[in-house]
Amino acid sequence: MQSTKIWDNFTRIYHFSQLILLALMWYSGEQGDFELHFICGFALLALWGTRLLWGFIGSDTSRFTHFIKSPWAVIKAWRGNSITTPHIGHNPVGGYMVLALLISLGVQLFSGLFASDDVFSEGPLYSLFSESTAEQLDSLHHFNFNILLILIAVHALAGILHFFRGDNVLLAIVSGNKKLPLKNSTSLSFKSALMPLVLWATLFTLLYSSWGTAI
User: Fold this and answer.
1) 3-class DSSP assignment, residue 129
2) What pLDDT does residue 100 have?
3) CATH top-level class for 2-214?
């Protein structure tokens, strides 16, 4: 076994930043602090968009082509009981979980742009649709959050299962490194976090400057 770098800095920053921003959005929504809710929403939307781009141009293990495999590869992983053995990056099953999380998060963020609490606050794009459509999107915003919580819980439980099977994926996302068998040693390309961080900040600035006054 040897310690191998598998995650770049931006992917690690993304992982924890989205968790913090989601927690703040839940808290601010529960407390009725919609100014904070929308600011965090803009920050998370910018982060989400940056992560999507990073999935195409980022480091090797962060690219979608590295961990989104064919359904047959997923079935093979299940049959071979290899989903909890150490992988370079996400295993085939974990790749689809990442995809599900990104889709659910995208639905949550975009539905929030059109939602309204009918009292104090409304999303910056609320006026683009009729009242009935806005109500449906608001219902979707609340319903999808429960789906998102379920996916996060399953994701966390999978990480705990990996830990007890000897594959410490939790430490890997913190340190960026994982202990892998020598046979799994490979040459990976990693890119600087500077470009995606600048893009994240730029997207957030554009979103806030365009829609922040609607809060």
Assistant:
1) coil
2) 96
3) mainly alpha
CB atoms within 10 A of CB 157: 10
Q: List, for the chain, all residue ranges whose pLDDT scores fall below the cut of 70.
A: 1, 77-86, 117-121, 181-186, 213-215
> CA geometry: angle at 88 spanning 105 and 49, to 5°?
25
Spatial separation of the C-alpha atoms in residues 27 and 80, rounded to whole Å: 42
Put simply, whether the predicted model's pTM sits higher than 0.85 gets the answer: yes
Angle between the 194-211 and 9-31 helix axes, to the nearest 10 degrees? 30
CB 95 within 8 A of CB 103: no
Give tens-digit pLDDT for 152-162: 999 999 888 88
- Of 117, 135, 102, 149, the C-alpha closest to 38 is 117
CA distances from 88 to 12, 155, 159, 178 (A): 15, 17, 15, 8
